[in-house]
Amino acid sequence: MANFIFSNLEEKKRLTICNIARQWEIQQNRTALEASLNQDKDNEPCQINGSTAYVFPEESRSLDTILSSAVQGLSVLDSHLVEVEGDTLYLYGSGALECLDRNWSVQTAGSVVTVSFMFMEFDEIVQVLTKLKLKFPNSVHLKFKETNLVTLQQFNALAQVHRIEQLTVDPQGNPVVNFTLWKYYVLFRLNHLNLQKINGIEVTQNDTVMAERLFGILAYVASSELPHYRMLSLFGESRMKQFHDLLEGKGKKSGVGIEESGDNRKAGGESTARAMLNYTAKNVHMEKLEEIKERKTFCQTYVENLVKEAADIHMKNESLQKLWPQMFIELVRDAVIEIRNKNSYMKLCLQRIADQKQ
Q1: Closest C-alpha to 245, from 227, 211, 220
Q2: Rounded (5°) CA angle 112-188-249
Q3: Helix then strand then coil, % of the chain, to nearest 5
């Protein structure tokens, strides 16, 4: 009986993972289709993930229609899966990230050493990295598979974890591993974490030195180009002198990399120069761009109104300057005519006073 229940659970788990994988594949295909349709408006065949080419006439079939049949084929299983097996926490599907909000037992949370992310966007993972360390303080190994790691810049986000001994990035679904120097960049950017293994291979002192030689100048360039107000927001007034010393070359020479001394590092051990190399998730970046756009529109409208008001005042002033000589003559003439007969003028003034009192 126990074996039957166990086999049923294993089968349900297998089906759930298959369902999550299929949903992920459809999502990636949708993204590929959108990119293809945006680039090609001539109904030419487009190839998706190496599969057979298809032709989708835009006037007759929408993107949703193209993928609807595939979506209908999915079973109604859970769209995410959370599982703790041994010392590893497996997270399948973006919905699994919500498990970090659960109340985990102290024993379970403390036993997790490895966290494995699968079938979810890396940008979604970034938003919960700080929460991950709070929930699972002993986790030191992060694994990524089918997470759309595509740029070296994305590795900057891992600096906020503060403790990683091992990093595993599966080539499947993570194109960034196609870059020859990606491991060296990881070692350089996450130098303060003292990584011991990357993709199961021990990190040597030679690897660390090579990483500094390849990317050390990058931190210097990034820090020297950062506006003053951004430096203040990152470090505050108390750290600005140290940072200016770095930019002026009072630390070690930048040609071999910027190896800052212990007193020129942030509390967590991360160097000030490397801290400039950060990563903003795509959705957060888009929100910031939208906010910047709104501010730009407001400022533009405000300035346009000011310019229009100033132009109106200028035109009125010019008109007044043209009309004023004639107006002054007429005012003087009217005044002279009015007071020419003294008695009549006095009666008129008395009458005006009497009218005001009434």
Answers
A1: 220
A2: 140
A3: 60, 10, 30
Residues of the chain with pLDDT under 50: 45-61, 63, 66-76, 238, 251-268
Compute CA 143 distance to the chain's CA centroid, rounded to the nearest angstrom: 22
C-alpha distances (whole Å) from 186 to each of 70, 140, 169, 196, 301 are: 38, 15, 11, 12, 45
**Nearest residue to 183 (alpha-carbon basis) of 217, 157, 210:** 210
The predicted structure's pLDDT at residue 99: 85
Confidence at residue 165, expressed as pLDDT on a 0 to 100 scale: 95
Please tell me the predicted confidence (pLDDT) of residue 341. 81
Which DSSP category does 204 fall into?
A: P
CA-nearest of 150, 124, 118 to 25 is 118
- Residues in the chain, how many? 358
What the block records as the tokens of 197 is: 């293994």
Residue 90: CB partners within 8 Å, gap ≥ 6?
A: 81, 82, 83, 84, 116, 118
Task: Find out whether 100 and 129 touch, Cβ atoms under 8 Å.
Answer: no
Identity at 311, one-letter amino acid code: A
Single out the residue of 90, 67, 102, 200 nearest to residue 146, CA to CA: 90
> Could you give the 3-state DSSP secondary structure of residue 68?
helix
Q: Tokens 């959705």 belong to which residue?
A: 283
pLDDT digits (tens, 9 = 90+) for 333-347: 888 887 888 888 888
Q: Does pTM top 0.85 for this prediction?
A: no
Residues in Cβ contact with 89 at an 8 Å cutoff, skipping those fewer than 6 apart = 82, 83, 112, 114, 115, 116, 136, 139
Cα(178)–Cα(21) distance, integer angstroms: 22
**Quick one: pLDDT at residue 229?**
58
In tens, the pLDDT along 204-229 reads 999 999 999 999 888 777 766 666 65
